[in-house]
Amino acid sequence: MIRVLLADDEAMVRAGVRAILASGGESEVVAEAGDGREAVELARAHRPDVALLDIRMPRLDGLAAAEELVRTVPGTAVAMLTTFSEHSYVARALAAGATGFLLKSGDPYELMAGVRAVADGAAFLSPKVARYVVEDLGRDGGRFAREERARARVALLSPREREVLGLVGAGLSNPEIAARLHLVEGTVKAYVSAVLDRLEVRNRVLAAIVAYEAGLVETDA
Fold this sequence. Notes:
Strand content: 5-15%
Mean pLDDT: 86
Distance between the termini: 37 Å
Radius of gyration: 17 Å
Strand order of the largest sheet: 2-1-3-4-5-6
Structural class: alpha/beta
Number of strands: 6
Order of helices and strands: EHEHEHEHEHEHHHHHH
Number of helices: 11
Low-confidence stretches: none
Oligomer: single chain
Protein backbone atom coordinates (compact mmCIF):
# COMPACT_ATOMS: atom_id res chain seq x y z
CA MET A 1 0.00 0.00 0.00
CA ILE A 2 1.37 3.41 -1.01
CA ARG A 3 1.27 5.85 1.91
CA VAL A 4 0.31 9.36 0.79
CA LEU A 5 0.46 12.76 2.42
CA LEU A 6 -2.10 15.14 0.90
CA ALA A 7 -1.71 18.90 1.22
CA ASP A 8 -4.37 21.31 -0.02
CA ASP A 9 -6.01 24.27 1.68
CA GLU A 10 -9.48 23.19 0.48
CA ALA A 11 -11.06 20.43 2.57
CA MET A 12 -13.43 19.40 -0.23
CA VAL A 13 -10.53 18.91 -2.64
CA ARG A 14 -8.73 16.76 -0.08
CA ALA A 15 -11.87 14.66 0.39
CA GLY A 16 -12.19 14.12 -3.36
CA VAL A 17 -8.57 13.16 -3.85
CA ARG A 18 -8.69 10.83 -0.84
CA ALA A 19 -11.76 9.09 -2.29
CA ILE A 20 -10.13 8.66 -5.72
CA LEU A 21 -6.99 7.15 -4.23
CA ALA A 22 -9.01 4.85 -1.98
CA SER A 23 -11.02 3.61 -4.96
CA GLY A 24 -7.84 2.40 -6.65
CA GLY A 25 -6.98 0.09 -3.77
CA GLU A 26 -3.24 0.84 -4.04
CA SER A 27 -2.89 3.99 -1.95
CA GLU A 28 -4.03 5.38 1.37
CA VAL A 29 -3.87 8.93 2.68
CA VAL A 30 -2.05 8.74 6.01
CA ALA A 31 -1.98 12.48 6.71
CA GLU A 32 -3.63 15.67 5.48
CA ALA A 33 -2.36 19.23 5.65
CA GLY A 34 -4.05 22.56 4.98
CA ASP A 35 -0.86 24.48 4.27
CA GLY A 36 2.71 23.92 3.19
CA ARG A 37 4.29 24.30 6.63
CA GLU A 38 1.97 21.70 8.09
CA ALA A 39 2.73 19.42 5.13
CA VAL A 40 6.46 19.51 5.89
CA GLU A 41 5.86 18.82 9.58
CA LEU A 42 3.53 15.90 8.86
CA ALA A 43 5.91 14.45 6.28
CA ARG A 44 8.70 14.43 8.84
CA ALA A 45 6.39 12.71 11.33
CA HIS A 46 4.78 10.13 9.02
CA ARG A 47 7.50 9.58 6.38
CA PRO A 48 4.97 8.89 3.57
CA ASP A 49 5.94 7.33 0.26
CA VAL A 50 4.45 10.24 -1.69
CA ALA A 51 3.59 13.84 -0.84
CA LEU A 52 0.86 15.35 -3.05
CA LEU A 53 1.10 19.12 -2.78
CA ASP A 54 -1.11 21.91 -4.02
CA ILE A 55 0.87 24.95 -5.20
CA ARG A 56 -1.04 27.88 -3.75
CA MET A 57 -1.32 27.33 0.00
CA PRO A 58 -0.98 29.64 3.02
CA ARG A 59 2.07 29.92 5.31
CA LEU A 60 4.32 28.04 2.87
CA ASP A 61 3.38 27.46 -0.78
CA GLY A 62 3.63 24.04 -2.39
CA LEU A 63 6.78 24.84 -4.37
CA ALA A 64 8.70 25.93 -1.29
CA ALA A 65 7.32 22.95 0.63
CA ALA A 66 8.46 20.62 -2.15
CA GLU A 67 11.99 21.98 -2.01
CA GLU A 68 12.11 21.56 1.77
CA LEU A 69 10.69 18.04 1.61
CA VAL A 70 13.23 16.95 -1.01
CA ARG A 71 15.99 18.30 1.22
CA THR A 72 14.79 17.04 4.62
CA VAL A 73 12.65 13.95 3.86
CA PRO A 74 14.48 12.37 0.90
CA GLY A 75 12.58 9.10 1.17
CA THR A 76 9.34 10.84 0.22
CA ALA A 77 8.63 11.40 -3.48
CA VAL A 78 6.99 14.74 -4.24
CA ALA A 79 4.26 15.38 -6.79
CA MET A 80 2.39 18.62 -7.40
CA LEU A 81 -1.40 18.47 -7.73
CA THR A 82 -2.83 21.75 -8.93
CA THR A 83 -5.19 23.60 -11.24
CA PHE A 84 -2.32 25.82 -12.35
CA SER A 85 -0.32 24.66 -15.36
CA GLU A 86 1.65 27.74 -16.38
CA HIS A 87 5.19 27.16 -17.59
CA SER A 88 6.68 28.99 -14.61
CA TYR A 89 5.02 26.65 -12.12
CA VAL A 90 6.11 23.54 -14.02
CA ALA A 91 9.71 24.74 -14.25
CA ARG A 92 9.83 25.74 -10.59
CA ALA A 93 8.31 22.44 -9.48
CA LEU A 94 10.88 20.43 -11.41
CA ALA A 95 13.69 22.65 -10.15
CA ALA A 96 12.43 22.11 -6.60
CA GLY A 97 12.85 18.37 -7.02
CA ALA A 98 9.29 17.23 -7.72
CA THR A 99 9.04 14.13 -9.92
CA GLY A 100 5.33 14.42 -10.64
CA PHE A 101 3.09 17.25 -11.86
CA LEU A 102 -0.63 16.43 -11.94
CA LEU A 103 -3.61 18.60 -12.77
CA LYS A 104 -6.81 18.54 -10.74
CA SER A 105 -8.69 18.78 -14.02
CA GLY A 106 -7.17 15.50 -15.21
CA ASP A 107 -8.72 12.06 -15.29
CA PRO A 108 -8.81 10.21 -11.92
CA TYR A 109 -6.77 7.46 -13.55
CA GLU A 110 -3.97 9.97 -14.11
CA LEU A 111 -3.93 10.71 -10.40
CA MET A 112 -3.68 7.04 -9.44
CA ALA A 113 -1.10 6.32 -12.14
CA GLY A 114 0.95 9.36 -11.15
CA VAL A 115 1.06 8.41 -7.48
CA ARG A 116 2.05 4.87 -8.38
CA ALA A 117 4.79 6.08 -10.75
CA VAL A 118 6.48 8.52 -8.38
CA ALA A 119 6.21 6.02 -5.51
CA ASP A 120 8.10 3.52 -7.69
CA GLY A 121 10.84 6.06 -8.31
CA ALA A 122 9.72 7.03 -11.80
CA ALA A 123 8.47 10.39 -13.04
CA PHE A 124 4.96 11.34 -14.17
CA LEU A 125 3.65 14.43 -15.92
CA SER A 126 0.02 14.94 -16.85
CA PRO A 127 -0.32 14.95 -20.66
CA LYS A 128 -1.03 18.69 -20.78
CA VAL A 129 2.07 19.39 -18.70
CA ALA A 130 4.15 17.02 -20.82
CA ARG A 131 3.19 19.03 -23.89
CA TYR A 132 4.46 22.19 -22.21
CA VAL A 133 7.78 20.50 -21.45
CA VAL A 134 8.15 19.23 -25.02
CA GLU A 135 7.38 22.72 -26.36
CA ASP A 136 10.12 24.12 -24.16
CA LEU A 137 12.61 21.69 -25.70
CA GLY A 138 12.51 23.84 -28.82
CA ARG A 139 13.64 26.95 -26.98
CA ASP A 140 16.97 28.01 -25.49
CA GLY A 141 18.95 28.20 -28.72
CA GLY A 142 16.77 25.95 -30.82
CA ARG A 143 16.06 22.26 -30.97
CA PHE A 144 19.24 21.20 -32.77
CA ALA A 145 21.50 23.15 -30.44
CA ARG A 146 19.86 21.56 -27.42
CA GLU A 147 20.16 18.11 -28.95
CA GLU A 148 23.86 18.67 -29.63
CA ARG A 149 24.46 19.77 -26.03
CA ALA A 150 22.52 16.77 -24.73
CA ARG A 151 24.54 14.34 -26.86
CA ALA A 152 27.76 15.89 -25.56
CA ARG A 153 26.61 15.42 -21.96
CA VAL A 154 25.51 11.85 -22.58
CA ALA A 155 28.86 11.04 -24.19
CA LEU A 156 30.40 11.30 -20.71
CA LEU A 157 28.37 8.29 -19.56
CA SER A 158 29.37 4.65 -19.81
CA PRO A 159 27.38 2.42 -22.21
CA ARG A 160 25.44 0.92 -19.30
CA GLU A 161 24.71 4.35 -17.84
CA ARG A 162 23.39 5.50 -21.22
CA GLU A 163 21.19 2.41 -21.34
CA VAL A 164 19.83 3.17 -17.88
CA LEU A 165 19.28 6.82 -18.83
CA GLY A 166 17.27 5.80 -21.88
CA LEU A 167 14.98 3.68 -19.73
CA VAL A 168 14.60 6.51 -17.22
CA GLY A 169 13.62 8.70 -20.15
CA ALA A 170 11.03 6.11 -21.17
CA GLY A 171 9.45 6.49 -17.74
CA LEU A 172 10.49 3.16 -16.23
CA SER A 173 10.90 2.81 -12.48
CA ASN A 174 13.95 1.26 -10.85
CA PRO A 175 12.29 -2.18 -10.46
CA GLU A 176 11.22 -2.09 -14.12
CA ILE A 177 14.72 -1.12 -15.27
CA ALA A 178 16.18 -3.91 -13.12
CA ALA A 179 13.87 -6.46 -14.75
CA ARG A 180 14.61 -5.15 -18.25
CA LEU A 181 18.39 -5.23 -17.78
CA HIS A 182 18.50 -8.33 -15.54
CA LEU A 183 20.10 -6.41 -12.68
CA VAL A 184 19.31 -6.19 -8.98
CA GLU A 185 17.37 -3.09 -7.98
CA GLY A 186 20.21 -1.78 -5.78
CA THR A 187 22.56 -1.77 -8.76
CA VAL A 188 20.04 0.16 -10.84
CA LYS A 189 19.63 2.71 -8.05
CA ALA A 190 23.40 3.20 -8.01
CA TYR A 191 23.46 3.66 -11.79
CA VAL A 192 20.65 6.22 -11.65
CA SER A 193 22.43 8.18 -8.92
CA ALA A 194 25.65 8.15 -10.95
CA VAL A 195 23.80 9.34 -14.06
CA LEU A 196 22.18 12.23 -12.19
CA ASP A 197 25.58 13.24 -10.79
CA ARG A 198 27.35 13.06 -14.16
CA LEU A 199 24.62 14.99 -15.94
CA GLU A 200 24.43 17.46 -13.03
CA VAL A 201 20.64 17.27 -12.87
CA ARG A 202 18.53 17.21 -9.75
CA ASN A 203 15.95 14.54 -10.52
CA ARG A 204 14.70 11.91 -12.96
CA VAL A 205 12.42 14.30 -14.83
CA LEU A 206 15.33 16.52 -15.84
CA ALA A 207 17.41 13.44 -16.69
CA ALA A 208 14.55 12.19 -18.87
CA ILE A 209 14.58 15.47 -20.78
CA VAL A 210 18.30 15.04 -21.49
CA ALA A 211 17.64 11.46 -22.62
CA TYR A 212 14.89 12.67 -24.95
CA GLU A 213 17.05 15.43 -26.43
CA ALA A 214 20.01 13.06 -26.90
CA GLY A 215 17.88 10.60 -28.83
CA LEU A 216 18.04 7.82 -26.24
CA VAL A 217 14.26 7.45 -25.99
CA GLU A 218 12.41 5.61 -28.69
CA THR A 219 9.42 7.60 -29.97
CA ASP A 220 6.59 6.63 -32.25
CA ALA A 221 7.00 7.73 -35.82
